[in-house]
UniProtKB/TrEMBL annotation:
It is an enzyme of class 5 (isomerase). One of its GO terms (cellular component) is cytosol. Signal peptide: none annotated. The keyword Isomerase applies. The keyword Isomerase applies. GO terms for molecular function: UDP-glucose 4-epimerase activity. This is UDP-glucose 4-epimerase. Its cofactor is NAD(+).
Length: 343
C-alpha cells in the first residue's frame, strides 16, 4: 500500500529530523524541505542510517513561492504539511527582528498560499510555550492567556498562531490545523545517529551541559539562583525530542482523520517542571559524569518558571510523553559522545 505523503519543512533540523523518522516508522512518506540555514545535511545521513531508506529532499527556502510551488507540483499527492522551518534563537531575534519576522511569518504566509493553490488542507504548526510569556499560574493550560512576547521570536510564534486561526476561520477556508506548543525539547534518538546540533556556543541548557561534560566547554554557568523556586533556579518542562516527534505523528493522523475542529492547540510537554539544578543532578545520576558548574547572574528575559498542564493532549489528542528526565539526558550524552567519535 502506498504511503501517505507529508511535507516536513525544516525536516533536517533537530525536531524535524526526529519527526521524519517517526513519520516513516508510522507508515507515512515524509518529504523534507530544508535550506540548511540552521541545520546540517549530515542529519539526513543519520536519518537514512536509521530508516535504511533515503528520504526525498528539496533544498529550498519556504519563503520562495515559486520553488515551493515546484515542490508541490513535483511531489503530486501531498496530503499534509508539518511546518518546522523557522529561526528560533530568542537572543538573536532581539538583534535581528526584521529577519525573524520576514522568515518566520513570511514563510508561513507563503506556505499557506501555496497549500491553498494545491488544495492541501492539513497543517501541523510548530509553536512554543514562549507564547505564554511569564504565566500568572502554573501549570499552563492551552487556555492560559498568551502574553506580550518577551522577544521578536516569541512574537512571530504568536503572530503565526493568529494567522492560522484567522485563515481557518474564513468561510471559504478548507485548512485544518493543529498548533503544537512545545516546551523544552531535549535528548536524541536512541541510536545516537541524530540529535541536537547547536551551531557555535549553545544557548540552550542541555547542549551546554553535554559539551561541558565532554570537555568542550570549561564550565556551565547556571543563570541565577535567586528565583522564587524551591532551589532558586529556573523551572522548565523538559520533553524528550522523540516524544515530541511522536506528538506530530498523532497530530497528522488526527488531521487526516478529520476528527477534530478546524483549529486545535495542544501543549506538548511532560507536565512536570524541573529546575536547572535538578537537570544538572539528573545528568550526573544518569551518566555518572560530574559536572563543573558555577552560579552566575540571571539571564535577561528568562521566565522564572513554566511547565505544562498536559490534560488536553492526553484526553483529546490521546498523546502523552513516556521518557523520564534521566532517560532524555542519558540520550543527550550518548549523542554527544557519538559526535565526539565522529569528529
Ligand atoms: C533553560 C533554562 C536558562 C543555558 C528557549 C526558547 C524557547 C525554546 C527553547 C525554541 C533557563 C538556563 C541555559 C545555560 C543556564 N526555543 N540555562 N545556563 O530559554 O527555556 O527556552 O529554548 O522554540 O522558545 O525560549 O531554554 O535551554 O535556553 O534555558 O542556566 O548555559 O536553563 O537560564 O533557565 P529556554 P534554555
Amino acid at each position: 500500500m502506498s504511503r501517505t505523503k507529508i511535507l516536513v519543512t525544516g525536516g533536517a533540523g533537530y525536531i524535524g529530523s526526529h519527526a521524519v523518522v517517526e513519520l516513516y516508522e508510522a507508515g507515512f512518506q515524509p518529504v523534507i524541505i530544508d535550506n540548511f540555514v540552521n541545520s546540517r545535511e549530515s542529519a539526513l545521513d543519520g536519518v537514512e542510517s536509521i530508516l535504511g531508506v533515503k528520504v526525498p529532499l528539496h533544498r529550498i527556502d519556504c519563503n520562495d513561492a515559486e520553488a515551493l510551488r515546484a515542490v508541490f507540483a513535483e511531489e503530486g499527492n501531498v496530503r499534509g504539511v508539518i511546518h518546522f522551518a523557522a529561526y528560533k534563537a530568542v537572543g538573536e531575534s532581539i538583534e535581528k527582528p526584521l529577519e525573524y519576522y520576514q522568515n518566520n511569518v513570511g514563510s508561513l504566509l507563503t506556505l499557506l498560499t501555496v497549500m491553498r493553490e494545491f488544495g492541501v488542507e492539513a497543517l501541523v504548526f510548530s509553536s512554543s510555550c514562549t507564547v505564554y510569556g511569564v504565566p500568572e499560574a502554573l501549570p499552563v493550560t492551552e487556555q492560559t492567556p498568551t502574553k506580550q512576547a518577551n522577544s521578536p521570536y516569541g512574537a512571530t510564534k504568536q503572530m503565526c498562531e493568529d494567522i492560522l486561526r484567522d485563515v481557518a476561520a474564513a468561510p471559504a477556508n478548507k485548512l485544518r490545523t493543529i498548533l503544537l506548543r512545545y516546551f523544552n525539547p531535549i535528548g536524541a534518538h536512541a541510536s545516537a545517529k541524530i540529535g541536537e546540533l547547536p551551531l557555535g556556543v549553545p544557548q540552550n541548557l542541555v547542549p551546554y551541559v553535554t559539551q561541558t561534560a565532554a570537555g568542550i566547554r570549561e564550565q556551565l554557568t547556571i543563570n541565577g539562583d535567586t528565583y522564587d523556586t524551591p532551589d532558586g533556579t529556573n523551572i522548565r518542562d523538559y520533553v524528550h525530542v522523540v516524544d515530541l516527534a511522536k506528538a506530530h505523528v498523532v497530530a497528522v493522523q488526527r488531521l487526516l482523520a478529520g476528527t477534530g475542529e478546524t483549529v486545535e492547540t495542544f501543549n506538548v510537554g511532560t507536565g512536570r517542571g524541573n529546575s536547572v539544578l535538578e537537570v544538572v543532578q539528573a545528568f550526573e545520576r544518569a551518566t555518572g559524569v560530574k559536572l563543573n558548574y558555577r552560579i552566575g547572574p540571571p539571564r535577561p528575559g528568562d521566565v522564572p518558571a513554566i511547565y505544562a498542564d498536559v490534560t488536553k493532549s492526553v484526553e483529546i489528542l490521546g498523546f502523552q510523553t513516556s521518557a523520564s528526565l534521566e532517560e532524555a539526558l542519558a540520550s543527550s550524552w550518548k549523542w554527544q559522545q557519538h559526535l565526539a567519535d565522529s569528529q
